[in-house]
């Protein structure tokens, strides 16, 4: 579970305009295992300023667990997030809100399997 969190941390701190080419930052299982203990309060403060959208079904639920589990051990890792469950089969207007980042910087959008 910590691997998902460290991947999210690294992805959140990588500038969005980096081209996908040699020299860009790679985050894999080894980085998650070996670098997690090096995350500082300053790193967490930076991550809390990022706008992060986690969208999906079961994988996205695993990502949320990867976010909440370390915070249960150490409050430094806590991130406030909002979960939006949208099921378009029951709600024809169940689209992602345009102001999804107005209250929380980390949003979980549980999407339907198909439309």
How would you describe this structure to a colleague?
This protein has one domain. It contains four helices and three strands, in the order αααβαββ. The protein has helices spanning 2-13, 29-35, 41-47, 58-73; strands at residues 52-56, 81-85, 106-110. Strands 1-3-2 form a three-stranded parallel β-sheet, covered by helices on one side. Helix 1 (2-13) crosses helix 2 (29-35). The longest helix has 16 residues, at 58-73. It is globular, with a radius of gyration of 15 Å.
Describe this structure in a few short sentences:
By secondary structure, this protein is of the alpha/beta class. Helices cover 37% and strands 13% of the residues.
How is the topology of this model organized?
Blueprint: H1 2-13, H2 29-35, H3 41-47, E1 52-56, H4 58-73, E2 81-85, E3 106-110
Parallel strand pairs: 1-3, 2-3
Q: Kindly report the spatial arrangement of strands forming the biggest sheet.
A: 1-3-2
Calculate the terminal CA-CA distance, rounded to whole Å: 30 Å
Quote the beta fraction.
5-15%
Helix content, binned percent: 25-40%
Number of strands: 3
Keywords:
three-stranded parallel β-sheet, single chain, 115 residues, alpha/beta
């Amino acid at each position: 579970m910590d691997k998902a969190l460290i991947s999210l941390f690294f992805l959140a701190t990588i500038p969005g305009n980096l081209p996908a080419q040699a020299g860009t930052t790679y985050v894999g299982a080894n980085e998650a295992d070996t670098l997690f203990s090096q995350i500082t309060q300053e790193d967490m403060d930076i991550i809390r300023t990022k706008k992060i959208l986690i969208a999906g079904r079961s994988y996205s639920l695993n990502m949320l667990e990867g976010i909440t589990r370390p915070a249960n051990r150490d409050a430094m890792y806590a991130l406030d997030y909002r979960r939006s469950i949208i099921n378009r089969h029951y709600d024809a207007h169940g689209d992602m809100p345009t102001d999804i980042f107005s209250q929380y910087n980390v949003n979980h959008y549980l999407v339907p399997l198909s439309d």
